[in-house]
């Protein structure tokens, strides 16, 4: 997978896995990483699927309707890539925190739904439920930050609440941020995510 890696300036911090939204690339969320954890190592990844020339992490059948078969395949592909990257760049595979926006947040959520212990934590900005009616592996107090917009035209509030409920039931420790806006990222939720990161991952 196309990617960019930046080494840590403070070794004990988790490596941040950056997962962009539709049409983004491996560098899109670097400014978020600089705000949330500027001393952490960063692995920015570009999705392997193209939709009308725009990179994504998995196919969809229509707006809000995922191609589940491709989602499962791409989730496994991403999980295996994280294994390989940990070996190549010598970071701790068991100490990864995903930061995903929109489509990238959805694939990060899918890792939590399908691959136990794949992430030590995740900040999911404007995510949807990746799959329904599946048994989610134990999240065992994994810290999860979920940022949502009350007026998001793409993700109804009940969808976000379902995601939160699913992760809580799996044992995750979920922190919610509800902004007054829509699908766009806001500085306020990023600052809230920074606070969440510092409380959970900086000793």
UniProtKB/TrEMBL annotation:
| Pfam families assigned to the protein according to its UniProt record, in alphabetical order | DLH
Domain Dienelactone hydrolase as annotated: residue spans: 83-175
Recite the UniProt keywords alphabetically.
Hydrolase
* GO molecular function, a single term: hydrolase activity
Query: Record's InterPro entries?
Result: AB_hydrolase_fold, Dienelactn_hydro, LYPA1-2/EST-like
Q: Which domain of life is it from?
A: Bacteria
Segments traversing the membrane: none
The protein's name in its UniProt record: Alpha/beta hydrolase
Q: Organism, per UniProt?
A: Alkalihalophilus sp. As8PL
Q: What phylogenetic lineage does the species belong to? A: Bacteria, Bacillati, Bacillota, Bacilli, Bacillales
């Amino acid at each position: 997978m196309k990617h960019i890696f930046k080494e840590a300036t403070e070794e004990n911090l988790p490596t941040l896995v950056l997962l962009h939204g539709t049409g983004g690339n491996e560098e899109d969320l670097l400014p978020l990483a600089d705000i949330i954890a500027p001393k952490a190592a960063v692995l920015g990844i570009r999705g392997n699927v193209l939709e009308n020339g725009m990179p994504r992490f998995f196919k969809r059948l229509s707006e809000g309707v995922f191609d589940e078969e491709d989602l499962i395949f791409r989730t496994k592909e991403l999980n295996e890539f994280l294994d390989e990257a940990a070996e190549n760049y010598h970071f701790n595979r068991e100490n990864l925190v995903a930061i995903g926006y929109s489509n990238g947040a959805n694939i990060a959520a899918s890792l939590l739904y399908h691959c136990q212990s794949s992430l030590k934590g995740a900040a999911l900005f404007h995510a949807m439920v990746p799959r329904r009616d599946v048994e989610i592996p134990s999240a065992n107090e994994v810290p999860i930050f979920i940022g949502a917009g009350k007026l998001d035209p793409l993700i109804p509030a009940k969808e976000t609440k379902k995601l939160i409920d699913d992760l809580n039931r799996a044992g995750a420790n979920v922190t919610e941020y509800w902004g007054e806006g829509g699908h766009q990222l806001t500085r306020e939720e990023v600052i809230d995510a920074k606070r969440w990161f510092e409380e959970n991952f900086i000793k």
